[in-house]
Structure to design on (850 residues):
């Protein structure tokens, strides 16, 4: 191979590596705001009522979200796991739900707690 | 025929032609976007008169081989002191203006002497040293403005009574004195600043005449070929010193003229960047680092102030944004960079 | 040649730092600031600003004088930081991404600056100085008009009220002090930004290694004598451009380091001061247009920042006006550069004259010996 071509191929590879590195770092370092929404929500004609006495733990921060309320938590990075705990003494006492979020470039996501509590896989609300 | 044209273009320089054409286009557009041609023309002429002498101040130092006078702030400061002193004693109108000029000249001469001495010590990096001497003196004067014993209530800070204000209005003193001297008014929107132009013309004539005298010729020789000049009995150092003094004095006068047109005296950091537009203007007019003629000054000032007046207004009107600051920076500094990168005559030290 | 070891010789060649030291001794007690406060400030500032001053070393080595074009690198770094603020990338990854963004911009600007400086041989410093202003205009055009309109920013908080153009100040909350606090160390109540110092040490080692590589040697040869280097086959133009590109890159990273400590970007003015103060610091530390070493950098940053911190209070206590101290600080910064350049030019002339005299007298001796031989 001619040295000129080889040098250019190396340069292109370097650029691609740099961009890939940049993307990986950006995802790793990006700060997202997760809003936990505890209001009544309807999807596909199924009604999810607001949940009482729920506590959300994410990345070590614990927040309780009252019914018909919202709560915002800032997290960094791509892999985050959310733990829902119900401390309400009635019916579903002690029930825990754990979901894993894989966030990439979104800045803000809204998670619907009622849906999450009922085992819905896609509990994201549009903004 | 083609050869003649290309030679003219070469000597004129492509950038100047481009800018001149650009300026004409700008003027042509004004009526289309709803600006008044006569107001624009009038504005431009006023600015030319305002800045003209400051640009003239560049010539002696370029000719004597000291390079572009980035230390113009020294002359400007002398002009400011003159103006402020004249106001302190409440001289108004023509008296005020003349007093301002008269006060600033001796100070400018002294400062120029000091500055010239510095430059003679520093052959080789004159321009950089000039810049920093200029800057540090502006900063130094800022300290001075605070503590010098000026007392005129129109000039000092309100409640302490001490220390000059940053901007002092010339209203009621000699604001626009020259501009309104024998004004030529055509309609409501066009004012030809006769007085200012007269002074500019006198200044140009004096400079031109000076360079035809023996001393002037000696100065040019000192700049273009120091060794030859020395061999012919010219004291190169003395010529350089003289050129700096003249430059500084013109700078001082130029500043007073500028103030009367502008209407305000700007102290403290005002004079900081004042050298750059003048440098850019003379370069735009075709001067190089070691050669400048009066024609360069006149053409350069017209072109430069034209661009500075017209481009922001036109762009502001058509795009509804205020880009004047950015354009000013790009155009003036771009011109200077262009001039610096041209291969001028190789100077023999 | 006999080396005259005279006290006056030492004083003259190190005049500027000595003057500054004397000044410091007078001004520090005058300002009434506690030593502890001073030491803390110096620690922080050393960690923050030394990187930028180190970027000036390479062009001096290559004989190109003081690279005022480092502001171009600073601009590139700022653009990188603006982007990561917009995207919300925080922490160490944030800094790395800003550096990654700033790198290609710095290289491009460095190439531009270097080629312009090549066309203005003998006037590099003035040219780079004005070029800095020119690029400032271009940068402002980009930041004030393109950002937000042509280049979409996601975070509306960064924009001016009119909808496009970046705001005057950008908060870097996400990466604020991230380097400083990375490895926290507190000695006697004084915070020491360990990570920053580690970074600086690494850079110093890299610079030392670099000056021993072939490229580094080429540059040093260029710095000593351009004609000789050219004759030896070194590509003068290319090496000079590379020197400027390296300097611009380092300035970019240095500005990122500096701003992460400050925590805020003054979008329209942060980069302007950078050039002046870095160069002033280098000169204060004993560096000159022709020779600048790593100790110059650190001594310079130390002394310069002492002056910087102490002036306002000293001015206030001396004359009763803090504003005076501000102006005094500006005056000293610029005055130092003027004085140093002056001394340098004067020394240069003296050397030329001495050399010429030596040549003349050698010629006379030659002719005399020739005459004797005849």
């Amino acid at each position: 191979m001619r040295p000129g071509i080889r040098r250019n191929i190396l340069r292109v590879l370097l650029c691609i590596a740099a961009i890939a590195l940049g993307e990986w770092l950006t995802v790793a370092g990006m700060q997202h705001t997760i809003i936990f929404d505890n209001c009544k929500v309807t999807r596909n004609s199924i009604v999810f009522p607001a949940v009482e006495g729920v506590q959300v733990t994410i990345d070590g921060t614990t927040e309780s979200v009252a019914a018909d309320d919202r709560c915002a938590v800032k997290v960094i990075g791509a892999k985050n796991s959310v733990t829902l705990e119900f401390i309400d003494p009635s019916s579903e006492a002690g029930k825990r739900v754990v979901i894993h979020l894989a966030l990439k470039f979104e800045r803000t996501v809204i998670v619907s707690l009622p849906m999450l509590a009922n085992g819905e896989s896609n509990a994201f609300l549009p903004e | 025929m083609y050869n003649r044209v290309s030679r003219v273009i070469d000597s004129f320089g492509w950038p100047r032609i481009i800018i001149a054409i650009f300026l004409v286009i700008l003027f042509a557009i004004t009526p289309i976007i709803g600006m008044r041609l006569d107001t624009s023309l009038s504005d431009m002429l006023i600015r030319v008169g305002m800045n003209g002498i400051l640009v003239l101040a560049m010539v002696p130092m370029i000719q004597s081989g000291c390079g572009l006078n980035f230390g113009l702030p020294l002359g400007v400061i002398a002009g400011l002191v003159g103006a402020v002193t004249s106001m302190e004693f409440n001289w108004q109108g023509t008296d005020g203006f003349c007093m301002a000029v008269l006060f600033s000249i001796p100070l400018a001469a002294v400062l120029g002497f000091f500055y010239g001495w510095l430059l003679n010590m520093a052959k080789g990096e004159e321009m950089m040293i000039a810049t920093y001497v200029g800057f540090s003196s502006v900063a130094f004067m800022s300290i001075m403005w605070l503590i010098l014993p000026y007392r005129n209530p129109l000039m000092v800070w309100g409640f302490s009574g001490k220390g000059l204000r940053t901007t002092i209005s010339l209203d009621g003193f000699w604001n626009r004195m020259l501009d309104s001297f024998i004004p030529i008014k055509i309609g409501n929107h066009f004012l030809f600043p006769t007085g200012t132009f007269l002074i500019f013309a006198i200044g140009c004539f004096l400079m031109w005449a000076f360079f035809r005298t023996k001393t002037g010729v000696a100065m040019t020789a000192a700049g273009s070929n120091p060794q030859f000049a020395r061999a012919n009995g010219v004291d190169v150092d003395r010529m350089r010193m003289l050129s700096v003094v003249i430059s500084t004095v013109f700078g001082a006068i130029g500043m007073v003229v500028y103030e009367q047109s502008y209407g305000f005296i700007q102290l403290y950091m005002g004079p900081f960047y004042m050298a750059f537009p003048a440098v850019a203007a003379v370069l735009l007019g075709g001067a190089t680092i070691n050669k400048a003629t009066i024609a360069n000054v006149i053409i350069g000032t017209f072109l430069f102030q034209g661009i500075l007046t017209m481009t922001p207004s036109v762009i502001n009107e058509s795009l509804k944004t205020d880009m004047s600051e950015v354009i000013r920076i790009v155009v003036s500094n771009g011109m200077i960079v262009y001039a610096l990168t041209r291969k001028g005559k190789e100077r023999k030290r | 040649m006999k080396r005259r070891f005279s006290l006056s010789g030492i004083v003259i060649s190190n005049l500027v730092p000595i003057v500054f030291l004397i000044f410091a001794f007078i001004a520090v007690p005058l300002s009434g600031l506690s030593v502890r406060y001073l030491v803390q400030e110096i620690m922080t500032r050393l960690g923050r600003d030394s990187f930028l001053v180190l970027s000036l070393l390479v062009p001096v080595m290559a004989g190109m004088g003081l690279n005022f074009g480092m502001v171009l690198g600073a601009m590139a770094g700022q653009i990188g930081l603006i982007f990561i603020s917009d995207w919300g990338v925080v922490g160490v990854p944030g800094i790395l991404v800003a550096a990654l963004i700033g790198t290609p911009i710095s290289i491009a600007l460095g190439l531009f600056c270097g080629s312009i400086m090549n066309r203005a041989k003998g006037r590099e410093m003035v040219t780079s100085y004005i070029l800095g202003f020119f690029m400032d205009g271009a940068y402002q055009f980009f930041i004030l008009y393109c950002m937000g309109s042509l280049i979409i920013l996601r975070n509306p908080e960064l924009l001016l009220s009119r909808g496009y153009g970046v705001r005057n100040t950008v908060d870097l909350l996400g990466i604020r002090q991230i380097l400083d606090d990375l490895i926290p160390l507190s000695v006697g109540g004084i915070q020491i930004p360990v990570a920053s110092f580690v970074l600086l040490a690494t850079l110093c080692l890299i610079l030392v290694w670099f000056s021993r590589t072939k490229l580094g040697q080429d540059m040093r040869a260029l710095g000593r004598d351009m004609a000789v280097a050219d004759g030896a086959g070194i590509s003068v133009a290319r090496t000079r451009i590379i020197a400027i590109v390296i300097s611009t890159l380092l300035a970019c990273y240095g500005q990122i380091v500096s701003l992460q400590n400050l925590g805020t970007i003054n979008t329209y003015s942060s980069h302007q001061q950078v050039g002046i103060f870095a160069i002033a610091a280098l000169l204060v530390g004993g560096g000159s247009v022709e020779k600048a070493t790593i100790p110059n950098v650190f001594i310079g940053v130390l002394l310069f920042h002492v002056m910087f911190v102490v002036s306002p209070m000293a001015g206030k206590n001396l004359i009763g006006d803090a504003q005076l101290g501000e102006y005094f600080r500006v005056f000293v910064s610029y005055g130092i550069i003027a004085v140093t350049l002056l001394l340098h030019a004067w020394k240069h002339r003296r050397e030329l004259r001495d050399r010429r005299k030596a040549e003349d007298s050698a010629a006379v001796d030659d002719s005399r010996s020739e005459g004797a031989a005849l």
About this structure: The longest strand of chain A covers residues 79-86. Chain A is about 25% helix and 40% strand.
